[in-house]
Design brief:
Hect, E3 ligase catalytic domain fold; two-stranded antiparallel ribbon; 4 helices
Amino acid sequence: MAQQLKFGYRHDTTLGWTLDEEEAKIVRLVFDLYVRQERSMEVIAGRLPTNLRPTANSRTWSRRNVQAILGNCEYAGYKETDRGFEHSDLPTIITPELFNEAQQIRLRMTNPSRRHLIKLIDSGSET
C-alpha cells in the first residue's frame, strides 16, 4: 500500500517514516515565526522558500499551507484519534509545548465559531 506523503518526512520501505531534514527545518521555522516572532500566517507563507513545495498539488506557499502545518499535532509526536491524543510513530519535529503555544495563539486569532476545531495536546479536549 502506498504511503501518503507528509511534509517534513520521508517514507522508506525498511525504515518507515524518517525526517526529511530540509523540510523539517521549514516546519520548525513556521512554528518559530508564528510563536516566537509573532508573524501572521500570510507573512510566514511569503517568507518560505519557493524551491520546497508544500504539497504535491501546491506550487507556492499559502496561508492554508501554513495553517495546516501549525495545526498538525504529528509534528509534536502525537496523532488525534476518537479517544483524544495518542503518541504517533512519527519522529518529532517540535515539542508538544511549542505546538500548544501555537494553538493558544490560533485560538486568540480564530473566529469564535471555529474555535472548537483547535485542540491542545495536553488535554486532548476541545477548547
